[in-house]
Description:
Shape: globular
Order of helices and strands: HHHEEHEHHEHEHEHEHEHEEH
CATH class: Alpha Beta
Bound molecules: zinc ion
Amino acid sequence: MVKFLASSFTVLLLTIAAVKAQINPALYPKINEVPPVTSPEVVAWLKEIDLTGAPTIELHVGAPPACPNPPIANECYWTCDGCAADDITACAAPNTWGLTFDDGPSTATPTLLDYLKTNKLSASFFVIGSNAIQYPDTLKREVTEGHHLASHTWSHHALTTLTNEQIVAEMKWTEKAVLEATGLRLKYMRPPYGDINNRVRFVLKKLGYIPVDWTGDAFDTNDWRIPTMTEAQVIDTFSKSLDTYVASDKAKGFYCLEHDVSSLTVNVALKLLPLGITRKINFASVAGCESDAQPYQAGSTAPMPTLSAGTSAGQPTATKGGATPSASATGVAGNGTVNGPTIVDPKNKSGASSIAVSGVFAAAAAAAVALILA
Ligand SMILES: [Zn+2]
């Protein structure tokens, strides 16, 4: 009898584990388009925040927009003048590669996840909401395997070209999609193309988001230039950037720009990451870099993942089962202040970290079992 119950229990768990995340796209805006601001959902979200006092900076034009000439005073436009305000632009942990991937999830993402799992590395995935509703199971897998999720907007439009209300719609629809898929409410974001100024920052702050840029041109892997730029050129260029970094004091780590948007970018990632491992650079997600034990916003319906301590290259970074976050630091507290780049990523941008999951889905499965058995 006990054996029968144990067997049935195992089958039940396997069945629950096999249940795919379901998101009904009909309940979301059109993919890859700026969501309308007149929908009941967006109207309700706009009522929750006060946008009065937002800087009155004119909207830019273009995809991505050209730099204004002459520059707009007090705009603090990162992609054009390197002004980062209080954006995070460097990994706070020394000698650490802040591992971030933008523009997913995609059909190429599982290959990257396999590699990260094999090498015991954790990353932050800056996901696009339009992709999130198409691949919710990939989001679940990312969380389950100790990665950190962050926002890269709904439709990947340059935010300085959008109204304040459109920015709210872009962020909140993405937040809703990831919350529905994983139970986690996003806290960090990366602006598409690194396109951010003080008006965008104002709106993001109202929504509780922390912008994460990348650590300047040298840490743009240029993976998005492939095949215009050959894979060999990308690897050679980035290898030299790593050599320069290794020769520095390495007091702070760096955030790279990488993408899990296609097999082209994922395949080159599998060749770039070993360059860091052989140089004995540690790896961490944004949560790991910033020692953030609460890497998601309040309102998450799943337990907060536990931040792991170890981020050494090739070493385990995921500690499972902890209910109470412990922010044992791998690095220095506080945000980076390194100046940003002066170029614009024509398609993508991203970031990564080392958090572990406190059995989010295991807990959900257990709850489901309890419900079924009751
Ligand atoms: Zn992007």
